[in-house]
């Protein structure tokens, strides 16, 4: 099973400057493990010490915010697209 992951520019240094990465996983948690295997160090940027997604990082599966789905347990299917969107603040 293959899932397309869209990588934000600040994290592309961990993906050899690739804007998209193909990974596997039946849910977001498994996808994060697969992403870490192919791009070491990226999980620490996305998750806290307990393995939970950081507050300032948003994940979308096929344009649906996983906070309104099943969070890290959100199921994935072959061909899904996962977008990683860092929160932007300013004033």
From TrEMBL:
Under Pfam families, the record lists: ThiS (PF02597)
Checking SUPFAM superfamilies in the record gives: MoaD/ThiS
What is the protein named?
MoaD/ThiS family protein
Q: Which domain of life is it from?
A: Bacteria
Q: What taxonomic ancestry is recorded? A: Bacteria, Bacillati, Cyanobacteriota, Cyanophyceae, Leptolyngbyales
Instruction: Give the source species.
Output: Trichocoleus desertorum GB2-A4
Q: Which CDD domains match?
A: Ubl_CysO_like
Query: Where is the signal peptide, in residue numbers?
Result: none
UniProt cross-references to InterPro entries, sorted A to Z: Beta-grasp_dom_sf (IPR012675), Mopterin_synth/thiamin_S_b (IPR016155), Sulfur_Carrier/Prot_Modifier (IPR052045), ThiS/MoaD-like (IPR003749)
